[in-house]
Amino acid sequence: MIQPETDPRRPSETTVGELPRRFASAVTYNAAYPACALPSEPHRRNALRGYHAAMAGVEDDVTGSGASLTVDFLPGGAPTVAEPDRLGTVVATHWGQPPVLVLAESVSLHAAWKAITGHWPTRLSDVRVALAALSAYPGPHR
Known about the structure:
disordered N terminus, alpha+beta, 5 strands, globular, 21% helix, disordered C terminus, five-stranded antiparallel sheet
């Protein structure tokens, strides 16, 4: 398990690199990522299997907003172990509302889910550390 205070990969103000790609609306995000669209209908968006740190939300300590965010796995939410894996995009939103922050692209959604839930992060920087540890897409997981 990654220990946030001691892990050398932990992002800091000097090592984070670029901020996540940010979209002001789901419409602009969906135009850029049509194959991994964020559902526009609230009932479809809320039905996605995502990560929300036990309904407390993930604190945005990356952009400085301090907002409570959810992590979504697109398209279709994070696959369960019984479902086939998908290649997709991992984003963070303010509970389905803008902005949309792109955390990872072209990743195994199963591996991304396991990486995040394996650490149960409560801060966005720790979600990014978990995702940064992912290797290139290894193929479907069963």
